[in-house]
Amino acid sequence: MPRVLIDISRLCYRQLSGRLPTGIDRVGLEYIRHYADRAHAVLALGRFSSVLSRSDSERAFRLLLDPQSNATRQRLRLIMKAYLGWWVSQDITGCVVFNTSHTGLERAHYAAQLRRRGARPVFFVHDLIPVTHPEYCRRGERERHMARMRTAVTTGWGIIANSRDTLDALGRFCREMGLQMPPAVVAPLATSLSQMETGPRPVAAPYFVVVGTIEPRKNHSLLLQLWRKLVERSGEAAPRLAVIGRRGWECENVVYLLERCRQLNGVVAERGACSDAELATYLRHAQALLIPSFAEGYGIPLAEALSLGTPVIASDLPAFREVADEIPEYVDPLDGRRWMELIEDYAGDRSALRAAQLERMKGFRATTWQQHFQAVDEFIENL
After folding, report:
1. Which residues is 210 bridged to in the sheet?
2. What CATH number should be reported for the domain whose range is 4-189+370-382?
3. pLDDT (tens digit, 9 = 90+) per residue, 337-377?
4. Distance CA 214, CA 192 (A)
5. Tell me: the pLDDT tens digits for 240-264?
6. How far apart are CA 180 and CA 382, in angstroms?
7. Quick one: which of 64, 100, 214, 259 could link to 28 by a disulfide (CB 3.0–4.6 Å)?
8. Does this chain's domain 4-189+370-382 share its CATH topology with 193-363?
9. Contact criterion met (CB below 8 Å) for 50 and 42
10. Could you state, in order of their start, the residue ranges of all structural domains in the chain?
11. pTM
């Protein structure tokens, strides 16, 4: 295995600003856990990238893996040291540089600089949703993501994709842009929630869970409209809904429903910050996880729920079928009537549909991080 460098830029700056880890961040943290004993950290600083010394890298990795650590001064010192020393020539010839976050790829010189110094960038591609579904993303995100993908395929030594669906989308992008795809591998993601100790039931009544940043693509508005109807039909007997995830962008209609809709008061609960242990507890006791997304690159919450023995009702997306095959109930994300039927059925004690899914999931085995990194390490060795 060649020497390893890990770009920690996104993780470092997000932790410094006090933000909770997203799914992309969790992937980066797992790469640190796997390679930390032999890796150096890379920190991007504007137009430049600095490779930290081995001792500074070890310190940076420890800080990133300990989010409770109150070490702002240490983090700032590492950033300043990297900034002051970016120009120092370090021999990184032949080193593999893992970028697991898309960060910096909108600037072509980021990877080109690494290549000029003899490094071999390997980029993790999580999805092409801003390119394929720009209507669900921030203004200008499509152009930025196209630049990221162009950088990845033109300067990357290799590509790691989280799903076959993501890799197929990247292949279509390359064909449309007239670009040559570098060597690539599909390495499905893993979940660690199944190893968590879960607490007692957090909600007495039957309840469902939706997990993810509140943004248009996640289709929270469908569920909240359905829940208002459920309350109108059943009153206090209506099942509860736990909305777990921070508020994102262009989600005003969902926020207004959460804050102002009287029918949802006391029935729908929002949890913006949730530890892994709390999330595992909510999932373990739920009637089902609901995922009405319009587009996804993978399906970590889906894998987490099934690994904890919780049924899933999800949009019929190729990425979800890669993760869970025929186990969940699949529904068109616009078919509100069918979502309502399934929610009402799964809320009951004697749901035949829920019992059937519990039977189907007995053979489910979630991908492990060991399997993920076995695929990645073999890919790097073959390159």
Report:
1. 243
2. 3.40.50
3. 999 999 999 999 999 999 999 999 998 999 999 999 999 99
4. 23
5. 999 999 998 888 999 999 999 999 9
6. 19
7. 100
8. yes
9. yes
10. 4-189+370-382, 193-363
11. 0.92
